[in-house]
């Protein structure tokens, strides 16, 4: 039995979001194919995701110096440890995001800033950093209003490429993408959505079996 971490980063209701609709179709198909796997859903706009702020850095410094932490520092560091341990414990990952301003939602970046932690998901060596999350795999589901997979838009795509890069940095090199792009085109919206849902269901079956 595998643990699947399903991470969403969109404050909208599911029916108003292309990425969330495609993600739900993926998850439903996955569960039908492999009902024994454990699915953990993490909505980054509903859960407590601490930012890397002064309390966090000051708290880490205090821990090194064996100085007592404030209540707020301890609260944030404990939550960060929970988030990181949950991430490390997963066997498979499904990330669902929209593209915002050519990149990713701020809460997704905040989440990555927490889980990309030396000693937990990567380590430094004499040859440079090495990812620790080997033999794991991930799916990135994303919706984009424009076209960024070809043409001039490719130079402005900092979302899916970032996800693949940072996951690879942590050792997760088996990463596939399901992209619904051009959704701002009202005439083709339904077709784009249905094509992405069809691809998501097909991909989910393969993802569940392997």
UniProtKB/TrEMBL annotation:
InterPro entries, per the entry: Flavodoxin_fold, Flavoprotein-like_sf, FMN-dep_NADH:Q_OxRdtase_AzoR1, NADH:quinone_OxRdtase_FMN_depd
Domain Flavodoxin-like fold as annotated: residue spans: 4-197
Pfam family of the protein (one): Flavodoxin_2
Entry EC no(s): 1.6.5.-, 1.7.1.17
Name of the top EC class for this enzyme: oxidoreductase
Cofactor: FMN
Residues at which FMN binds: 17-19, 99-102
Molecular-function annotations in GO: electron transfer activity; FMN binding; oxidoreductase activity, acting on NAD(P)H as acceptor; oxidoreductase activity, acting on NAD(P)H, quinone or similar compound as acceptor
Keywords of the record: Flavoprotein, FMN, NAD, Oxidoreductase
Gene3D superfamilies noted in UniProt: 3.40.50.360
Cofactor: binding comment: Binds 1 FMN per subunit.
Superkingdom of this protein's organism: Bacteria
Catalytic activity field: N,N-dimethyl-1,4-phenylenediamine + anthranilate + 2 NAD(+) = 2-(4-dimethylaminophenyl)diazenylbenzoate + 2 NADH + 2 H(+); 2 a quinone + NADH + H(+) = 2 a 1,4-benzosemiquinone + NAD(+)
Complex and partners: Homodimer.
Family in the record: Belongs to the azoreductase type 1 family.
Functional note: Also exhibits azoreductase activity. Catalyzes the reductive cleavage of the azo bond in aromatic azo compounds to the corresponding amines. Quinone reductase that provides resistance to thiol-specific stress caused by electrophilic quinones.
Designated name of the protein: FMN dependent NADH:quinone oxidoreductase
